[in-house]
Structure formats: C-alpha cells, structure tokens
Amino acid sequence: SVDCSFSRGVCDWKQDVDDDFDWNPADRDRGDGYYMAVPAFVGHKKDMGRLKLLLTDLKPKSSYCLIFSYRLAGERVGKLRVFLANKKTAPAWEQNKGKDERWRTGKIEIFQGPETTNSVTFESERGKGKTGEIGVDNVVLISGLCPED
After folding, report:
1. Is the pLDDT of residue 87 over 60?
2. What mean pLDDT, rounded, does the chain reach?
3. b/e map of 82-120 (b: 16 or more CB within 10 Å)?
C-alpha cells in the first residue's frame, strides 16, 4: 500500500495550472497534520479546482484500490469528482452533497490494462453556497481489489 496522505505521504501531488483556484492545506481538528480543502466562498459558481496525484510504477494488467476520506460541508457547497487519467470524459467517482458535515470514505477500483493510469485528479466544483468546504484527506493506494466495508 502507498500512503498519499498530505501530512506525511510519499506521493507526488500537483495543483492544476489551468483551473480556476487551488486546493489549500487546512489544519485537522485534532491537530495532527492537515488535509486539503476548498472553502465554499472561493471563486465563482461552476469554477473548478483540480489537485492531481501523479502515479508512477503501477503495474500493467493489475488492479488497485484508491481509498480516501472526503467531506462536503455546508449548504450547496458544490461537487467533488475524481477522474482517472486514461478515462478523461466521465468521472470515476462523484459526490455533490454531504448528509452532514462528517468525513466519509470513498473508494475507486483502478483496473490497469496494457495502458496504465498515471494520474488521479480530485476536482472541486464551486456551488452556490457561501459557507462550508470540500475536503480530501488520507489518500491511500493499495494493490488488489477494494475491500468490502
């Protein structure tokens, strides 16, 4: 398993230069490190912010599971999508509102064909809301299929 969390992870994260705003580090409530967040008031409605995880050395013809924590806090805060590099058109995962402000777990299966996925993009789309935030944390990549809950 590869730890891609932001506080102590070993992965290569890049801000997209062609988007509308950056993701920023935010301190965790418990004080142990930070997560990446987009506050609700950043940018204009429909603006996008993309944070890209560069993946190297993934073996062809094998499967991986990307597990991450996410939070959509606030009224009409926007959308969080995850794209796999080789499937640009449709998001592999999408969430547009939280039932509450708690952190939840997202999982995405990554199946490597002969073409390997070389990046994963977390995209935040600004909603109408003025309070709250979209947050991502504890990103981990494990080999094999995603475990059942």
Report:
1. no
2. 89
3. bbbbeeeeebbbebeebeeeeeeebebebeeeeebbeeb
The C-alpha atoms of residue 30 and residue 27 are separated, in whole angstroms, by 8
Cα distance between residue 40 and residue 134, in whole Å? 7
CA distances 126 to 74, 98, 119, 134, Å, are 12, 14, 22, 9
Question: Cα(37)–Cα(133) distance, rounded to whole angstroms?
Answer: 7
pTM of the model: 0.92
How far CA 6 is from CA of 9, 58, 112, 136, 139, in Å, comes to 6, 20, 25, 9, 8
Structure tokens that stand for 64 in this block: 């991986």
- Sequence-distant (6+) residues with CB within 8 A of 18 are none
Of 90, 8, 93, 80, the C-alpha closest to 50 is: 80
Strands (E), 28-118: 34-39, 48-54, 63-73, 78-84, 93-95, 104-111
Kindly report, residue by residue over 37-77, the tens digit of the pLDDT: 999 888 899 999 999 999 877 888 889 999 999 999 998 89
